[in-house]
Amino acid sequence: IVAPIWVVLYTCIAVSFSSILNKRDELKHHNIIIALFIAQLVLNLAWPSVFNSERYLLSLFMLILIIVFTIIYAYMVYKPIPNASILVWPYIAWVSFAAIINTAYYLETR
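Request: output the structure for the sequence above.
Response:
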């Protein structure tokens, strides 16, 4: 059940990022917005290997950064491109849920 959810989430964030790239000349601070997106994506792609190596505190910190970067991204693009912001809200919710699970793993094993 997790794989189909990630397909939908990655599709949503890809469409969001594509919207940003297509309208970047209209955005204030487009370089910051793009950097935030890329940073959270890199962290997201690195997270499974950190989590699966049972480094739960580090993986939790990574999830917190993903959430913070994505919330800032969503906030910065909301007024100029609302749909680009709205498309990442389910991703924020899912990663927040993952952070709760990650916290439980950390607390259980410390």
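The CA atoms of residues 16 and 84 lie 4 Å apart.
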